[in-house]
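Figure 3 (text version): structure tokens given as input.
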């Protein structure tokens, strides 16, 4: 429930970015999911990720 409350506090751009990252994760292979989780952890979970590849796009998908 905390996650839903935090999501509701995001602006439209933040909500869209979150949903895009969630969608990429849900459709990723197990290996891609592991890479995504590792990338998210690198960024502390609450900092925007700005790296190559983008943190919400599975490697090889973009």
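Below: residues designed for each position.
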């Amino acid at each position: 429930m905390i996650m839903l409350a935090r999501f509701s506090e995001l602006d439209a751009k933040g909500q869209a970015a979150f949903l895009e990252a969630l969608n990429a994760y849900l459709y990723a292979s197990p290996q891609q999911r592991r890479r995504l989780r590792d990338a998210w952890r690198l960024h502390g979970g609450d900092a925007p990720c700005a790296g190559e590849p983008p943190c919400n796009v599975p490697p090889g998908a973009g």
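The radius of gyration is 12 Å.
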